[in-house]
Specification:
With about 375 residues, the protein is α/β, with parallel strands linked by helices. The chain contains 15 helices and ten strands. Bound molecules: zinc ion. The site of zinc ion has 6 residues, from strand 1.
Length: about 375
């Protein structure tokens, strides 16, 4: 007699159907390959491949190559085809539709308007075009019997020194789609303290900011993001784990030979105790080397340590095209690696609900919607 196969507990769980929340997803990192091919042909931009499947593979390989210049080159191609009102509308609409198809019910999409004015659009026109695309995507999703809500995070590029202008742009659009501000680009050498005025302006206008920090640089960069960036969330933030010590001691029992004794540094304690959300992007973190000091594989990614020690960890994709990932796939990766179950996925999702740049009443409504979806999945 053969033993019944012991299927892993999670195998029947349809993660795609669960209502999910995405807080860290770049517009210029999430295009459909076929759309890039069509838009590039229309503007005469030369691509590494004009075959959508070949182009998708080129993006994936470039992101995985371990070469930062090659990784950054991928954005040259996506940004080149996102310079007109029509192309921004299309890319934003498809972005929303793709998220909805992946089961995302609330998303904040980030992008840097200053990189989309080469063909003559003003910053405001660029934001309006993306908003029009988002609204089309939301309407199409609703027409198909589904639901998604999407806000814009207006990003300033750290090396461009236009943060004040971009902060003002974001605040100008606060009642028409912009829900927050972000800075991206080279973390090392361009700390938030360089843009103190912009962050002060945002704070004076009660406009929330998330800051890419703790990705390419460590604890000092996180402190700068909290102090000068007044960051309410940390973009990645994974290197906060460098401020946590884990020592293993023999437990004296055979089943659990070692127990970890965790001690937190002051910065790690602050981030954890104040509930400052970490926008963790597992696959991206491995590709960019953000977590290289912990190891090279998902097994050594500090997300589990951060989650188990009570940080407000959220799970995100960063750049779905470059990393060839979906939010569903990132959750499945964590479930396979760390044996997370439905309760863990719910807790990580609720962390994202609570950290969303939404008013309290809308967060409560989102929380109820997510809870209902998870309850349905439990059957
Ligand atoms: Zn990012």
């Amino acid at each position: 007699m053969t033993e019944p196969t012991n299927l892993p507990e999670n195998s029947s769980l349809n993660v795609r159907s669960l209502p999910k929340v995405s807080l860290h997803d770049h517009l210029d990192g999430g295009l459909r390959p076929a759309t890039i091919v069509e838009l590039a042909a229309a503007v005469g931009h030369t691509l590494p491949s004009t075959d959508p499947a070949g182009l998708a593979e080129w993006f994936r390989e470039s992101a995985d190559s371990g070469s930062l210049p090659r990784y950054l080159e991928t954005f040259d191609h996506t940004i080149a085809v996102m310079q007109t009102r029509e192309s921004l509308i299309r890319v934003a609409r498809e972005f929303v539709e793709d998220l909805a198809a992946d089961g995302v019910v609330y998303a904040e999409v980030r992008w840097a308007p200053e990189q989309h004015v080469r063909a003559g659009l003003s910053l405001d026109e660029a934001v309006e075009a993306v908003q029009a695309g988002i609204e089309e995507g939301v309407a199409n999703t609703e027409a198909a019997g589904s639901f998604i809500q999407v806000g814009q995070l207006i990003t300033a590029m750290r090396h461009a020194d236009r943060a004040m202008e971009i902060a003002e742009l974001a605040v100008r659009h606060r009642d028409s789609g912009a829900v927050g501000f972000d800075i991206a680009g080279p973390e090392d050498g361009f700390p938030p303290s360089r843009f103190k005025d912009a962050f002060t302006y945002l704070a004076e206008n009660q406009f929330p900011a998330t800051v890419h920090a703790g990705e390419a640089a460590g604890i000092e960069s996180i402190v700068d993001a909290l102090v000068h960036g007044r960051a309410l969330r940390l973009g990645h933030g994974v290197r906060i784990a460098e401020d946590i010590d884990v020592e293993f001691e023999d437990s004296g029992t055979q089943d659990e030979p070692e127990v970890g004794i965790v001690s937190m540094g002051r910065v790690a304690s602050w981030v954890r105790d104040r509930g400052i959300a970490l926008e963790v992007c597992p696959s991206s973190n491995l590709q960019t080397g953000a977590v290289a000091s912990f190891g090279e594989d998902i097994e050594t990614h500090p997300i589990d340590l951060l989650y188990q020690t009570g940080f407000a960890v959220t799970v995100n994709t960063d750049n779905r095209l470059m990393s060839s990932v979906t939010l569903t796939g990132e959750f499945e990766l964590l479930m396979d690696t760390f044996d997370y179950d439905l309760d863990d996925v719910l807790e990580l999702t609720m962390n994202a609900v609570n950290a969303a740049f939404l008013p309290l009443d809308e967060r409560a409504a989102l929380s109820a919607y997510v809870t209902e979806g998870f309850n349905r999945a439990r059957g």
